[in-house]
Structure prediction request, 195 residues.
Amino acid sequence: MPDQTALRSMPDTDLMLRVQWGSDRAFAELYQRYYRRLLDFFYGMGRDPHVAEDLCHETFLRLWQLRVRYTVSGSFTAYLFSVARRIWLERGRQERKQWRLGVAQRLDAPGTAVLASTDPGPGDRAYGSELAERIAAAVQELPEEQRMAFVLRTVEGMSLSDIAAVMQCPVNTVRSRRLLAIKRLREALRGLRVR
Prediction:
């Protein structure tokens, strides 16, 4: 069995093949590599840090449960984010079902600022917080497929081909969804002054 240093230098697909055979250490290495990226993805999609953390853990749990069915057929990143996308869509269906049944109650909690001001002045901090809220709210207003393409490309920095694999659509569709998202964000934020 390779030591932790050897595992750190292994490609993701090799680690996942080890996970397939039940290697906890290889799984821990993948967790360490991708936890923050998944957390950022889910936060970018929903802006709720608690939900993001829960869905991140759910993604890794599902990855472990599906390990025996894993086959190397592209980038591991695309595979992992495909699992994350399915979990996000399942959560959305479950939420809509709860709303239809009247089980869920809306709680309007203030959002968390995503941008921090470099100037310690209170006016600048307040403006930076307001700006971050407006941008985050505009991203949340995007249709889900556009928001997902935007977050995967802009926040996660994934390639268009990997995003196409995650979203199960052609690369040109990803490109157009992302461009539509950018256009909608520009329209929503028109007139917003940046200091």
Summary: The chain is about 70% helix and 0% strand. Residues 104-119 have pLDDT under 50 and may be disordered. The radius of gyration is 19 Å.
